[in-house]
Amino acid sequence: MGDDSEWLKLPIDQKCEHKLWKARLNGYEEALKIFQKIKDEKSPEWSKYLGLIKKFVTDSNAVVQLKGLEAALVYVENAHVAGKTTGEVVSGVVSKVFNQPKAKAKELGIEICLMYVEIEKGEAVQEELLKGLDNKNPKIVVACIETLRKALSEFGSKIILLKPIIKVLPKLFESREKAIRDEAKLIAVEIYRWIRDALRPPLQNINSVQLKELEEEWVRLPTGAPKPSRFLRSQQELEAKLEQQQSAGGDAEGGGDDSDEVPQIDAYELLEAVEILSKLPKDFYDKIEAKKWQERKEALEAVEVLVKNPKLEAGDYADLVKALKKVVGKDTNVMLVALAAKCLTGLAVGLRKKFGQYAGHVVPTILEKFKEKKPQVVQALQEAIDAIFLTTTLQNISEDVLAVMDNKNPTIKQQTSLFIARSFRHCTASTLPKSLLKPFCAALLKHINDSAPEVRDAAFEALGTALKVVGEKAVNPFLADVDKLKLDKIKECSEKVELVHGKKAGLAADKKEFKPVPGRTAASGAAGDKDMKDISAPKPGPLKKAPATKAGGPPKKGKPTAPGGTGSTGTKNKKGLETKEIVEPELSIEVCEEKASVVLPPTCIQVLDSSNWKERLACMEEFQKAVELMDRTEMPCQALVRMLAKKPGWKETNFQVMQMKLHIVALIAQKGNFSKTSAQIVLDGLVDKIGDVKCGNNAKEAMTAIAEACMLPWTAEQVMSMAFSQKNPKNQSETLNWLSNAIKEFGFSGLNVKAFISNVKTALAATNPAVRTSAITLLGVMYLYVGPSLRMFFEDEKPALLSQIDAEFEKMQGQSPPAPTRGISKHSTSGTDEGEDGDEPDDGGNDVVDLLPRTEISDKITSELVSKIGDKNWKIRKEGLDEVAGIINEAKFIQPNIGELPTALKGRLNDSNKILVQQTLNILQQLAIAMGPNIKQHVKNLGIPIITVLGDSKNNVRAAALATVNAWAEQTGMKEWLEGEDLSEELKKENPFLRQELLGWLAEKLPTLRSTPTDLILCVPHLYSCLEDRNGDVRKKAQDALPFFMMHLGYEKMAKATGKLKPTSKDQVLAMLEKAKANMPAKPAAPTKTTSKPMGGSAPAKFQPASAPAEDSVSSSAEPRPDPKKAKAPGVSSKAKSAQGKKVPSKTSLKEDEDKSGPIFIVVPNGKEQRMKDEKGLKVLKWNFTTPRDEYIEQLKTQMSSCVAKWLQDEMFHSDFQHHNKALAVMVDHLECEKEGVIGCLDLILKWLTLRFFDTNTSVLMKALEYLKLLFTLLREEEYHLTENEASSFIPYLILKVGEPKDVIRKDVRAILNRMCLVYPASKMFSFIMEGTKSKNSKQRAECLEELGCLVESYGMNVCQPTPGKALKEIAIHIGDRDNAVRNAALNTIVTVYNVHGDQVFKLIGNLSEKDMSMLEERIKRSAKRPSAAPVKQVEEKPQRTQSISSNSNMLRKGPAEDMSSKLNQARSMSGHPEAAQMVRREFQLDLDEIENDNGTVRCEMPELVQHKLDDIFEPVLIPEPKIRAVSPHFDDMHSNTASTINFIISQVASGDINTSIQALTQIDEVLRQEDKAEAMSGHIDQFLIATFMQLRLIYNTHMADEKLEKDEIIKLYSCIIGNMISLFQIESLAREASTGVLKDLMHGLITLMLDSRIEDLEEGQQVIRSVNLLVVKVLEKSDQTNILSALLVLLQDSLLATASSPKFSELVMKCLWRMVRLLPDTINSINLDRILLDIHIFMKVFPKEKLKQCKSEFPIRTLKTLLHTLCKLKGPKILDHLTMIDNKNESELEAHLCRMMKHSMDQTGSKSDKETEKGASRLDEKSSKAKVNDFLAEIFKKIGSKENTKEGLAELYEYKKKYSDADIEPFLKNSSQFFQSYVERGLRVIEMEREGKGRIPTSTGISPQMEVTCVPTPTSTVSSIGNTNGEEVGPSVYLERLKILRQRCGLDNAKQDDRPPLTSLLSKPAVPTVASSTDMLHSKLSQLRESREQHQHSDLDSNQIHSSGTMTTSSSSTANIDDLKKRLERIKSSRK
C-alpha cells in the first residue's frame, strides 16, 4: 500500500504521467471527470493538459489507453485549445490506437479524429491519416481509410479534400491485403457519392475486376445529391436551421444549397499535367513546313500523340499554335487540315483556360476553313472550334466570329451560325448580355433571309438557342421586324434546344429567383462565373465543360440566397405579362379605339378631335383622371397614346391642351407597361415640342418617363436621330440638354455612344451657337463617365471649338459622376426591371468596347515589319518600332486583332538596347489607350513581360515600365493581372528592383479593389520571402503591401500560408501579420448609392481608374472563372515554365531571330584576367563550397551578364531543368563557331557546369558531360591550357561525379578526366584526384584510385605528387579500406606502379600491416607479370568480346586469361593496347579447295562437334549459295520465307524501341504456345536467345537509367521476355538447341537482372524477380545438360576473375551449380563428361587450390568438390577414362584430385590414422619437391649465364617451362638486369618458333593447344609490341627471327607480327580455349559455313607445307602460299556470283 499512497497524493496531471499503470488509470479517470465538469471552453484548466493529451492516446497499457482515449475525446470536444494538439494526437492515434486488437479503442480513435475535424482541424487530420496509409501494418492502413471514409460521409467533400485521397486510391487497390482493398472499395464508393463521374479517370488503370465491382456498387447508389450529416463548429447554426426546415417538411432551400456544392471536383483537376513542349520532335518546325505532305503528316502525328494527354502543363505554345494554324489555313491537303484541327482540339482540351490567349488567333482561320465540304474535315474543325470556345469567352472571340458572318460562302455562314448556336448553349443569361447578343442577332437575322436553306436553318437554330438562354424579353427587341412565320420557326427551334446547364425555362423563371435581394445582382453573376467562395453557389466546372456536368448540376444557377419565397407568385404573373407586352405588336387604329373605349369615358373619345379647344381641354382632363385611376395591368398603353396622337395629335395649336397631352403621355409611361411600340408613336411628337417655350418642359418630362419605361439607351438613340433629322435648332439644342440631364439621372450604363457621337459632331458643326453650346455641355457630362479618351473623337475639330471642349472638360475634372436616381419604375414591386438593370452594367461595360470607331490595323502589321522589329541591327529594330508607333498614332482607336505584333514587341522588352526597351514601353502605353479595354486579351502575353521590365537596373526604364503597367491596368482593371500564376512567378524572381516595384504597385492597386481572384493567394509565399529579403527596400515594400493582401485574403488564409516557412521565419512573419491585422483597411464598398439600382454606379468603372473595383465584378460576370483549385494544380514547374515562356523567346519563331542569331558568348577583352584578379584580391567570393549557396549563383549570374547573351543566361539560370537542357544544346551548337568566345568565358562556363553537377536531374548531368567531352576536345585542338583558377574551380566538382551510382555517368567523367590531361598537367591532376580519394563515397574513392593507376601507367612515376613516396603511402592506406571495390582499386593501382617500377614499390610504400602486405603480394603474384612485359598482361586481360574480327578463331572456347577483364585496362582501352593473337583451330579453318571445286550440288556433312544450328541468324551476310548446305537439319522442312520472317521478328526483339520489342516477343510467344507451330523456331533458338539477352542488357544499361521512360513500360517488357523464355524452355526439344556460349550469356543476363536493386524498388519488381527465379529453374532443368553445366562453370570462373563482379553474383551461379548437382543422378547418362571434366580442368588451372582458398568465401571450393564428388560417386573409377579432351593433365590438380577421391572411396575401411600419415607424407613430399625444383632452376640459370652453355641452358629452361607450366621463374629473373631478362625472353621465343614447326602431329582430339600456331594467318586488329625493344640482339637465331618477321610484313598486310603468340602465353599459360560468347558466334559465321571439311586431309596438307625447311616457321609457309590463297578466294567469290 505504501506505493499506492505515494501516487494517490499526486495532482492529477502528474498521475497521468506516472510510470505505474494504475496511477495513470486513476489519473485519466479523474481527468475525464474534470473535463466533463468544465463548462467554459476557454477555462485555463484546459491548458494544463495540453502536452499530456498525446500520452492519453498512446499509453502502452491497453486498459489504461482506453480510458485515456475517452478522456482525450471529451477534451478535444470541449477545450478551445484542443486544436493545437491535432498533429501529435492524431499521429499517436494512427500509430498506437489503430493497431490495437480492441474494437473499442479503434472506435474511440476514429471518434477523436472526427472530433478534430469538427473543430476545424480537418486538414491536419487528413494529412496524418494519409501518412498512415504508408504504414506497414495493414490494420493501421485499414483504420485510416475507414476514418477518412467516415469523415467524408459525415462532413462532405467540402471539408475533406478529395484530391489527395484519390491520388493514393490506385495504390490501395493494388495492396496485397484483402482488408485494405475492401476498405479502398468502400471509400471509392463514398467518394463517388460526392463527385460522381469525376472519379472515373483517376481509377481507369486499376484492375478490371475491381473496376467492374466498383461500377456495380456505383450503380446502386441513390442518384440524389448527398448532404453532410455533421457540421463544423462554425456551421452548427446551419445544421440547426436545416433540422428546423426538415421538421417543417421543406428542405428545398437546404437541398438547393447543397446540391449546388456537389460538382466541386472536376476529373481534369485530379489528373497530373504533362509537359509536352520539350517532347516535340526536334525537327518539328522544319517538317511542318516541308514540301512533302508525308513529312508534314509525320510532324502532325507526333503532336497528335502528345496532345492526347488529357491535361497539359502550361507553357509557351505560341509557336506550336501558329504552326498548326498555318496548316489549317493554308495546307492544300485536307487530311492534314483535319489532323491539325485535331491537334488544336487536343491542346485546347488539355490546356483549358490556358489556351484562351491563343484562341483569338485561331478562331477566324478555323471558321474560314469551313468552306471545305469533306465531312471528316468539317467534323474535325467543329470539334476544334468547340474545344477552343470552352477555353475563352464569347466576348473575346465575338469580333472574329461576326467578321466571318459576312462571308459569301454559304457553308462558312452555315457552320458559323451552328457554332454560335452551340456556343450559346454554354452561356447563361449573365454571360450573354444584350451588348453581345445584339450584334449576333443582327448578323443572324440577315442569315434567316439567306437564299441557302442550310444557312437559314442554322440561323434559326442559333436564334432559338439565344431565346432559350436569355428568355424572350431580352431577345424580342431584336426580332421586332421578323415576320410571324419566321418567329414561330425560331420559337420551335428554341423548344428543341437542350442547354448544357440543364436549364429548362428561359430567363424569366431564372430571374425571379435573384430579385428579392437588392444589391446582390452582381454577386449572382459572379456566383455562377467566379465561384466566389463565400456565396454558396455552384462551382463553375460545368460552365465551360459540358462533359463534366450532370443533370443534377446547377439548374438553380444564379440563386445566391433567396430569402423567403414571398411574392414569388406575383412575380411570376407580372413577369409573364411583361414578356407579352414588351414585344407588343402594332395595333390598328380600330382596335385601339375599341380598347380605349373600354377604359375611357365615352364622351372623352368623342370630343378628342373637337374643333373647340375648350372641349379638347376638358376631354384631356377626363383622360388624365381616367389614367390616374387605372390599374397598371389593365392600362392599354398603346391604345391610349394612339388616341392622344389622333388628329390633331401633336399638331395641337392650343398650348394648354398640348401641355396636358404631354403630361398624360408621361403618366401613361410611368403607370402602365409602356412598350417601345407605344413610345415610337409619341416620340416624334415629343421631339417636335421639346423646343417649344411653353410645352418644352412637359415634353422633356414625358421623354424622361418614356426613358424610364423603355430604357435610356434606346430612348436616347431614337430621340437623337429624330432631333437631327429635322432642321429646328431649338429642338436640337433642347434635345441635347435633355440628354445631358438624363445621363446624370439614369447613369451612363448601356448608352451607345457610337450611335450618337456623329450627331454630336453634327451639332458641333451647327451654325446656331445654342446647339453648339448644348453639344459641348453634353460632352462635359459624357466626360464624367467616359474619361479623357472622349477627346480623341474630336481632335480633328477646329482649334477654337477644341479649346471650348477642353475648357468644359477641365470644369468636369475631379468631379465624380452623380449617383443615378432613375432607371427603375417606381411602382415595380416585383423587381423585374431591377433584373433588367442588373444586366445593364454589362451593356455599359461592354459597349465601351465598341464605343469608338476602331480601325483594323492587322493588315498593316506585315511580316516585313515584324522581321524589322526583330532585326539584328538595332537601327532597323528602331525603324520598325517607329513604324508601329506611327500606325497606332494614325489609327487612334484600333481593333484588338493586331496580328504578330504582341510577340514582336515582347521580344523587344528584353532588348539589350535600353533605348529600344523604353520606346517599346511607350508603344505599349499607346497601344493600351488605342485598344481600350480590349487590351485585356493581351495581358498574359504582353502585360506580364512589362512587369518583368520592372526588374531593370536602370531607373528610367523602371519608371517607364511602371507607367505602362498603370496605363494598361487603367484599361483592363486588375482582375486579368491577378488571375493565374504569372504575377506570383514574377514576384518569385529574386530581383530586388522587380520585387520592390511590383510590391509598390500592388500596394497601390489592391486597396481599390472590391474583390480579387483567388489566385492572389499564390503570391503570398513570395511575399513572405520578400519580408525577409536582404534588400531593405524590398522588405519595406513587402510590409507596406501586407495589410492589403490581408484585406482580400483574410488573416486566416495568410496565417495558414506560413505553415511552409522555417520555424524562425514563421514566427517573424506571424508577428508582422498580427501587426498588419491591426492596420488592415476595410474593403471599399460597392459604389452604389441607392438600393433601387444595384449596379447603376458600377458601369463607369470601365472608364474611371478610381472606381476600378466595380469593373472587376462586372467583367467577372462576363466571363466564367475557372475553379479556384485549378489554378493551384499545376505546381511549381508549370509556373516556372509559363513565366519562362513569357521571358525567353522560343527557338523556332522568326521574331526572335535577332536574339538567337547573335553570338552567345561575347568576347570581353581581359575579362577573364580581371575576374581572376578580383578573385585573388578577394573582391568576389572564391569558388569553393560543398553545396552552392545563392550568393555564388548570383555572383556567377552577374559575372555572366556582360559576356553571355541575355536569353541564354535566362535559360541557364532558370529554375526548370528543361531550360538547362536547352541552354546546353545551344552551347553545343555554338561550340565550333564561337571558339574564341568559349575560351574567353571558359572560367564562367566551367563554374556554371559545376552548378549543374549539384542538380538531381540525370538528363542535365548527361548533357553537361556530353558538352564537356566536346569542350575539352576543342580545347586540345586549340592547344589551350587550363589556368589554375579554372582548374581549381572545376576539377574538384567533376571528381565528385566520378562516384555517381550510374555507370554511364562514371564512364563519361573518366573520359573527361582523360581528355583533361591533354590541356592540364597530369601531375597537377594527380593532386586533385588524390584529394578525391578522401571522399566518404566508396565508389568515388575506388574510381579515383583507378584513375591514379591510369595516370601512373600513362605518364610514369613523375606524375605522383608531391613525391612518389608520399603518394603511394596515401594510396596504400586504402588497401585496408572496408569496401571491396576500393581495396581492389588500391591494389590494382599499386600493381600498376609495380609493373612500371618493380620492387622499388615496396620501399616507397613503407610499412604496411601484415594483412595488407600479404594482400598486395598476392595481387602482384597473381598479376604474374614482370615489369618489362607490361603491355602483354594487358593484352591478355582485355575481354575477348571487344574483338570483332578475330572471333572466328575462338568459336568454341577461349583461354581464361582472355576473359580476365581489369577495369584499369578498360579505362585505357582508348589508346588501343595490343591483343593476344588467336590460333585457328582445325575445325574452323577454311578449306579452299573444297569450296572452289564445289558447284553448289554437294551436300556438305558436318562433323558432330560443330552442329550449331545458326544458319539463319546470319542470313543477311551469307553468300546466297552456301545456304543450300545449311547447317540446320530443319532448314529443308521450312520454307525459306518462314525462316526469314522468323529472322526478321527475332531481329526486332533486340530493338531499342520498347514497343517494337514487345510486339516481336508477342508474335514469337504465339508461335511457341502452339505445339504444331513451335517446331518452326527450331534452328533459331540461339539466335532468339542472343536477341533476348541483348535486350536484357539494353534494359539494364539504358532503359532503366532513362528517367523519362515510364517504369511500367520496362516491367511490361520484362514480363514479355520472361514469359517467352518460360514458354521456350518448356519445349524440351527446342530448349536443348541452346548452345553453351549462349546459355552462359543468358544466365549472366538473368542473374544480373535478379540482382538489380532498381527493379526491387518498382511496384511490380518483386513479381519480376520471382518470375526470373522460375525461369532460371526451367533453364537449368530443360537445357542440354552438358551445355548448361559447362556454361555455369565458365560463368563461375569469369565472375570470380572479374574484379567488378559482386560476390552475390558468384553466389547465385554456385546455387545454380548445386541445383545441377542435385539433378546429376537423373541426367548423368545424357552428359558429355569429357567436356565437363575439361571445363573443370580449365577452372582448376586458373584457380589452383591455394588461390581458391584465398577467396573470401569458401563456397567456390566447396562447390567444385561437391560436383567432382558427385561425379565420382555416380561414375566410379570409369571417370578417369573421361579425361580424353585434356591435353596436359599435369596443368591442373584435377587428375590427382579424382584419384584421391577414388582412393578415398576405395579405402573407406582404412583407419583414420592411415589417412593422416598419408597426408603428412604428401606434405613432406611437396616441400622436398619444391626444394628440388629450386635447385634445378638455379642450375639452369647458371648454364644460361655461362657463355659456353647458354643455348643448352635456354633449351632446358624451355623444356622445363613446357613441362611445369605453373613453375615460377620470377624469383630467378627478378634480381637480374633488364638486358639479361630480355635475352632470356628472346632466346625462349626462338626455340619455341624452331620447335613449333616440327611439332605438329594431330592428336586424337584435334590439335594440342601448345601447337596451335596458325597455319592460315588470322586477321586481327591488334599489334603486339613485344620483344626487340631493349637490349641488343645476340646470336644468329635472333637475326633469323627478325628476317622472318620482315618477310612476313612485306608479303602480307593481314598477317602482321601479332601472329606470334605473346611471351606470357609461351612461358606460362598455354592457350586453352574457352567458351565462346554469343557475340563471337555471330562474328564467326563465314568460317562456320566453310569449316566443314575433313580435318585429317587438312592437317596432312599443313604438315607437308610446314616441312619445307628445318628452320622455317608457319609464318614463312604462309608467306609462300598467301598469293595462292588470295587467288583461290577470288575465284570462289566470282563463281558464286
Describe this structure in words.
This protein has 2033 residues and is an all-alpha fold. Helix content is 64%, strand content 0%. Helix 35 (655-671) packs parallel to helix 37, helix 37 packs across helix 39 (729-746) and helix 70 packs antiparallel against helix 71. The longest helix is centred in the last third of the chain and has 34 residues, at 1808-1841. It is elongated.
Number of helices, counting only DSSP H or I runs of 4 residues or more: 104
The rounded distance between the terminal residues' Cα atoms is: 113 Å
Percent strand equals under 5%
Uncertain runs: 250-263, 503-581, 825-849, 1088-1154, 1425-1483, 1496-1504, 1517-1536, 1805-1824, 1895-1929, 1948-1970, 1978-2016
Helix fraction bin: 55-70%
- Rounded mean pLDDT score: 74
Coarse structural class: mainly alpha
Total count of strands: 0
**Structural shape:** elongated
Biggest sheet descriptor: none
Radius of gyration: 47 Å
Question: Which properties best describe this structure?
Answer:
2033 residues, mainly alpha, 104 helices, 0% strand, elongated
Summed up, what is this model?
The chain is mainly α.
Produce the secondary structure layout:
Layout: H1 2-8, H2 12-15, H3 21-37, H4 45-48, H5 53-57, H6 62-78, H7 86-97, H8 103-132, H9 138-155, H10 162-173, H11 178-195, H12 208-220, H13 236-248, H14 252-261, H15 284-287, H16 293-307, H17 318-330, H18 334-351, H19 356-369, H20 375-389, H21 394-405, H22 410-426, H23 434-447, H24 453-470, H25 472-475, H26 484-496, H27 507-511, H28 521-530, H29 541-544, H30 568-582, H31 589-599, H32 602-606, H33 613-629, H34 637-645, H35 655-671, H36 676-689, H37 696-710, H38 712-725, H39 729-746, H40 753-764, H41 769-786, H42 799-812, H43 832-847, H44 863-869, H45 874-891, H46 901-908, H47 914-931, H48 939-949, H49 955-972, H50 975-978, H51 982-988, H52 992-1005, H53 1020-1027, H54 1032-1056, H55 1063-1079, H56 1108-1118, H57 1124-1128, H58 1131-1143, H59 1153-1157, H60 1167-1176, H61 1190-1201, H62 1206-1212, H63 1217-1231, H64 1235-1240, H65 1242-1253, H66 1258-1277, H67 1284-1288, H68 1291-1296, H69 1303-1316, H70 1322-1332, H71 1338-1355, H72 1364-1373, H73 1380-1397, H74 1400-1405, H75 1410-1423, H76 1430-1437, H77 1456-1459, H78 1463-1467, H79 1488-1493, H80 1536-1549, ...
Helix pairs in contact: 3-6, 6-8, 7-8, 8-9, 9-11, 10-11, 11-12, 16-18, 17-18, 17-19, 18-20, 19-20, 19-21, 20-22, 21-22, 21-23, 22-24, 23-24, 24-26, 28-56, 31-34, 33-35, 34-35, 34-36, 35-37, 36-37, 36-38, 37-38, 37-39, 38-39, 38-40, 39-41, 40-41, 41-42, 44-45, 45-47, 46-48, 47-49, 48-49, 52-54, ...
